[in-house]
Amino acid sequence: MRILVLHAHPVETSFNRALFRLVVDRLEKAGHQLDILDLYAEDFDPRLTRAERLSYHDLSINRVPVDPYVGRLLAAEALVLVHPVWNFGFPAILKGFFDRVFLPGVSFGMVDGQVRPILHNIGKLVVVTTYGGSRFRAMLMGDPPRKIAKRVLRATIRPGAPMRYLALYDMNRSTDASRTAFLKKVTDVMDAF
Amino acid sequence: MRVLVVYCHPVPESFAAGLRDAAVDELLKAGHEVDLVDLYAEGFDPVMGADERRRYNTMVMADHPFPGHAERLQAAQGILFVYPTWWYGLPAMLKGWLDRVWTPELTFKIPDGPGPIVPLMTHVRLLGVITTCGAPRWWSYVVGHPGKRTILRGMRALCARRCRTLFMAHYMMDKSTDASRARFLASVRARLARL
Q1: What percent of chain A has pLDDT over 90?
Q2: What is the mean pLDDT of residues A6-24?
Q3: With an 8 Å Cβ cutoff, is B116 touching chain A?
Q4: I need a labelling partner for B145 at 20 to 30 A (CA). Which of A123, A142, A150, B90 fits?
Q5: H helix or E strand, kind and range, residue A72
Q6: Stretch A62-69: mean pLDDT, rounded?
Q7: Which of B15, B118, B174, B175 to mutate to test binding with chain A, by most A CBs within 10 Å of its CB?
Q8: For residue A110, what pLDDT band results from cuts at 50, 70 and 90?
Q9: What pLDDT sits at residue A13?
Q10: Which residue of chain B has the CA closest to A52?
């Protein structure tokens, strides 16, 4: 399967980076064809510009500033996100990837002012993420990144496509045991991709 | 009240700019003090780099990457966010401002032992959001208003215990009309006039 692995963490030695390496390693071993998009390594600029905003709904030119990224997104058959949750949301560099690349004509169409999802080349979605706070605290806050993944992204990709949300909460108080158990869980999901 | 207005939109002639102007105007008329942050105008960089991330949990004020923003945040008694909702959340620019400016020691303390983080922004008694959404209201509720929740629940947890909140959204922006926008502007003015 052609899989786009999208990663957003700045620190080489972080647990999140270890998760990213694990994901890549297991998927490669299973013989999948990977396109690795490490937003920090590519120095992605997440700021949607004035020109982009003005041409946002013009399907003939709106993808021009981010054309290579659109190409990679549309060539994928599956999408894996590996990112931390900061302040109950995506890191800015990843939020900006949605803002700038998930465009009208790419991930959704507009019919009479209403959104119609069209990213149907993506037939499987897995999110691997880490939260500083506990699951309870995230729930109190409405857990925005989980909802974005499970409701918005899931509604954007091919209808009925399988989706997994693998989250390790309470990183600020994680232990070797909790991290090891999570690595095992991610390994199992990747091996069965 | 000293209100920090945090404005984020790339297009100076946008409807969001009109909302910002109306908000500032009403706040001043009502006798509040206004400090305006315009993130696109100042070319704020929302991307937290590796070094900053490594130091984040033990960040002390002397190391703050944006001392000017930190001071303005510390001086605020109310914070009003004016931004377009993109992908159900904050524009990356604004999300990065929260990530990079709202640091430990300034906005919260991570306890040494067990227990939740300790809020330090207790001087903030009002958090407000004025936004525009492409999506309809019902779908925004299904998705859970991620942007609203990031600010009015996530960031509010770092503010005063009884911090008041305010949320106003013009939904279905892509079908908006002169009349719907004028109505929304008028309701924003009316709401802020009686803060």
Answers
A1: 90
A2: 98
A3: yes
A4: A123
A5: helix A67-75
A6: 97
A7: B174
A8: confident
A9: 96
A10: B10
Q: pTM of this prediction?
A: 0.95
For the cut 80, the answer to whether the pLDDT of residue A189 exceeds it is yes
Residue of B nearest to A94 (CA): B92
* B84 to chain A, closest Cα gap in Å: 11
- Tokens 């020109």 locate to A51
Q: What is the pLDDT of residue A177?
A: 96
| Residues contacting residue A22 through CB under 8 Å, at least 6 positions apart | A183, A186, A187, A190
Given a contact cutoff of 8 angstroms between Cβ atoms, the answer to whether A99 and B92 are in contact is yes
Cβ–Cβ pairs < 8 A, chains A and B: 145
Nearest to A89 among B95, B117, B145 (CB): B95
Give contacts of B144 with chain A, Cβ < 8 Å: 142-144, 147, 151
Beta-carbon separation of B91 and A99 below 8 A = yes
Three-state DSSP state, B38: strand
Q: Using 50, 70 and 90 to split pLDDT, how confident is the model at B115?
A: confident
* Beta-carbon separation of B53 and A147 below 8 A: no
Q: How far apart are CA A173 and CA A171, in angstroms?
A: 5
What integer is the mean pLDDT of B48-55? 96
Query: Could you tell me the domains of chain A?
Result: 2-191 (3.40.50.360)
What would the pLDDT profile of B133-169 be if each residue is shown by its tens digit?
999 999 899 888 999 999 999 999 999 999 999 999 9
A95·B157 Cβ contact <8 A: no
Size of chain A in residues: 193
If you average pLDDT over every residue of chain A, what do you get? 95
Please check whether residue B132 is in contact with residue B173, taking contact to mean a CB–CB distance below 8 angstroms: yes
Shortest Cα–Cα distance, A31 to chain B (Å): 32
- Structural domains of chain B sorted by starting position, each given as residue range(s) with its CATH number in brackets: 2-193 (3.40.50.360)
- Select from A78, A81, A82 the least CA-distant residue to A162: A78
Q: Is B56 helix (H, G, I), strand (E, B) or coil?
A: helix
Which residue out of A9, A14, A88 would a mutagenesis test of the B interface target, given it has the greatest number of B Cβ atoms within 10 Å? A88
Q: How far is A14 from chain B (nearest CA, A)?
A: 9
Torsion of CA B82, B17, B143, B134, to 10 degrees: 170
